[in-house]
Design a protein that fits this description.
Blueprint (H helix, E strand, L loop, with lengths): L1 E4 L1 H9 L6 H8 L4 E5 H12 L12 H10 L3 E3 L3 H6 L10 H12 L3 E4 L2 H4 L6 E2 L1
Helix pairs in contact: 3-4
Length: about 130
C-alpha cells in the first residue's frame, strides 16, 4: 500500500507518541508499504516551529530535524507540483486548512492513501485512512 502521512501522523511516528495506535504503527512499519511524507508537511513544521507556537499544535522538532529523521527512516519524499497546487481548487470546501487541502490533493493525484487523525479530512473519501 502507498501511504502519505498527514503532518501530525508523521510527527507522532517520529517521536513515538502514544497517540499513534498500534494499527497505524503496523502500517508504517510494514515493509510492503511505501511511506511518503510531503514537502507540505516539512513546510508546515517549519512555519509553526519558526513561529515558536506553544501549546496545542506545537511542533516537537524543527523542520530540518524532522526531514533528517524521515529520510533516515527511508520514507519517500513528495514534492509539490503545479498540478498538485491546481488540484486544490477542485476539492469541495469540507476542510479549510491549506496544508491539509494540499495533502489531500496530492493523495488523490499520485494516488496515495492519506493517513490522518483528522475526521474532517476523512470526509474526502474512502481512500483516506482515519483513526
Amino acid at each position: 500500500m502507498n501511504l502519505l502521512l498527514d503532518t501530525h501522523v508523521a510527527l507522532w511516528a517520529l517521536v513515538d507518541a502514544p497517540r499513534l495506535p498500534a494499527s497505524i504503527r503496523g502500517l508504517i512499519a510494514d515493509p510492503d508499504n511505501r511511506i511518503t511524507v510531503s514537502a507540505v508537511s516539512i513546510w508546515e513544521i517549519a512555519i509553526k516551529s519558526a513561529l515558536a507556537r506553544r501549546g496545542v499544535g506545537a511542533m516537537p522538532v524543527a523542520a530540518a530535524t524532522a526531514l533528517a529523521h524521515f529520510r533516515g527512516a527511508g520514507y519517500a519524499m513528495l514534492g509539490v507540483s503545479p498540478d498538485h497546487a491546481a488540484a486544490v481548487e477542485a476539492l469541495p470546501a469540507l476542510h479549510g486548512d491549506p496544508f491539509d487541502r494540499l495533502l489531500i490533493a496530492q493523495a488523490f493525484a499520485e494516488p496515495l492513501r492519506l493517513v490522518t487523525h483528522d475526521r474532517a479530512v476523512a470526509a474526502y473519501g474512502d481512500s483516506i485512512i482515519v483513526f
